[in-house]
Amino acid sequence: MKSAFIALSAIALAPLASATDIEITYSPEFQEKLEDDYGIKEGDKLSEDIRSDLEREFGKANLDPARVTVTIVDAKPNRPTMEQMSRRPGLDMLRSKSLGGMDLHGVAYDASGTPVGQIEYDWFENDITQVMAAGVWSDAKRASRRFAREFAEELSSSTD
User: Fold this and answer.
1) I want to staple 26 with a disulfide (CB 3.0 to 4.6 A). Which of 30, 63, 128, 159 is the partner?
2) CA-based nearest residue to 104, from 159, 59, 53
3) Strand order in the sheet with 67-76
4) What residues contact residue 121 under an 8 Å CB cut-off, 6+ apart?
């Protein structure tokens, strides 16, 4: 009985699945960085983080645009990617760290395809002493969370 109550509570508290179509692309310059330096799989990781951050923030704000496009204009890792470490033996996942972050551009559309809001957002750490990165994309993930929160706020204020 207790487990059934917990399961029902979890379902009731879970955000409703969004019908928003979220398309994430890369600027030509960032696509080149993925291909030549970071590795293509890293773009997929960033895209999934952005998608889940947008779904969470849109759900909290009760927003459901028909379609959202996001372009990763640029992103920089805090730690070397697997691809970078395979190409440069001197890099070390534990000791190598750098300033990271991400530059994003997003547009939300209604069902008729009319833009209903847009945002350009970038955040990059600028103090190496503040980099406490546990993961490759720690600062980029922080930028993604902030981007999603700001985008939801922008869309909420445009519908008021």
Assistant:
1) 30
2) 53
3) 21-26, 67-76, 101-109, 115-124
4) 103, 104, 105, 106, 143, 146, 147, 150, 151
Q: Render pLDDT for 28-66 as a digit per residue (tens, 0 to 9).
A: 999 999 999 999 999 999 999 999 999 999 999 999 999
Domains and CATH numbers, the chain: 21-159 (3.40.50)
Average model confidence (pLDDT) for the chain? 87
pLDDT tens digits, one per residue of 85-129: 888 887 777 778 889 999 999 999 999 999 999 999 999 999 887
pLDDT confidence of 19, banded at 50, 70, 90?
low
Could you tell me the sign of the dihedral formed by the alpha carbons of 78, 136, 75, 81, in that order? positive
Residue 153 has pLDDT above 70, yes or no: yes
With contact defined as beta carbons under 8 Å apart, do 154 and 61 qualify? no
The answer to whether 68 touches 52, Cβ cutoff 8 Å, is no
> In Å, what is the CA distance from 144 to each residue of 38, 98, 122, 159?
18, 18, 9, 23
| Cα distances (angstroms) measured from residue 46 to each of 34, 51, 73, 144, 160 | 11, 9, 12, 8, 31
